[in-house]
Amino acid sequence: MNTRNENVNHSEVDQLGQLVELISVIVADDSLHGRWLNSLSFLENSGARKISAAQHPELVTEQILRHTVEESRHAWYLKRQIRKLPSVACPTYEPAYLVAPTATRQYLHKLDTAVSRLVKTELELVGQDLRSACYVLVTYAIEVKADLLYGNYERLLKDHKSEVSVRTILVDEENHLAEMADTVAQQFEDPQWWLEKVCEIEQEIFSNWLTAIQAETQDSRT
Ligand SMILES: [Fe+2]
Ligand SMILES: [Fe+2]
To answer: For 161, what's the count of Cα atoms within 13 Å in the CB-facing half-sphere?
Structure first.
C-alpha cells in the first residue's frame, strides 16, 4: 500500500524546511547537538516503554517484541553517539540535558491523547482494544516522522563530516514504517483515512516541538 511519503502537502514541505534548517544549526554546536541526541534518545526510550505498556497480556507477536527491543536499542545507540562530541555529557534525561524539555516530554503524550480521543469517538473502543488500536496508529505516525527526521539528519551529519551517525536507526525505522502501514491496512476499515488523520494530528504536535526547539536555539545565540 502507499505510504503518505508519496503524498506530501504544502505544510509538510514547510515543516521539512524548518526541520532541515534547525538540524543544520544543531549539528554545528556540540553542546546543543548533545542535548538533541539525548532528546531523541529520550523519545526512543519513551516509545519503547509505551509499546510495552500497550501490549496485550497474551497476543504478543514476534514483531511487537522486536519492535520494542529495537526502540530501546535506538535510545541506547543515540546516547552512545553523544560520546563522539568532545566535552559534552548528558548522563540522564533531566531537563538540563534535553532541548526544549517541556515540549520534548509532551510530544508523545499529546500524540497518544489526541489519537486515543479520535479512536474512542470513531470506533467506540475501550480497554485493551483501545490500547492496541492506538499503538498501531500512533506508531505509524511516528515512523513516518522518524523516516523523514533520521533521513535528513544523516544527510546533514555527512555534510558536516560529523563522527555521529544514525544510519543504522534509519534502516530499522524504514522497516517499522512498512510493517505499521501493513498492520493498519489489515486491522482498519478505510485505512487511508486513518493514516492521513493520524499524520495530520502528529504534524501539528511535531510543529509545536520544532517551534519550541527553534526558540531555544535562537535564545542561546542572542
Ligand atoms: Fe526508533
Ligand atoms: Fe521505530
So the answer is: 0
Rounded distance between C-alpha atoms, residue 57 and residue 197, angstroms: 28
pLDDT per position as a tens digit, 106-144:
999 999 999 999 999 999 999 999 999 999 999 999 999
Q: Rounded to the nearest whole angstrom, what is the distance from the C-alpha of residue 71 to the centroid of ligand 2?
A: 6
What is the reported pLDDT for 93?
98
How close is the Cα of 222 to the center of ligand 1, in Å?
33
pLDDT reading at 7 higher than 90: no
Residues whose Cβ atom is located within 5 A of ion ligand 1: 44, 71, 74
What is the rounded CA–CA span in Å between residue 122 and residue 187? 14
Residue ranges of domains in the chain? 28-214
28-214 CATH pick, 1.10.286, 1.10.3470, 3.30.390, 1.20.1260: 1.20.1260
169 alpha carbon – ligand 2 mean position (Å): 8
Among the listed residues 105, 136, 111, the one whose alpha carbon sits nearest the alpha carbon of residue 42: 105
> Mean of the pLDDT values across residues 161-188?
95
What is the distance in A from the centroid of ligand 2 to the CA of 180?
A: 9
Q: What percent of the chain has pLDDT over 90?
A: 86
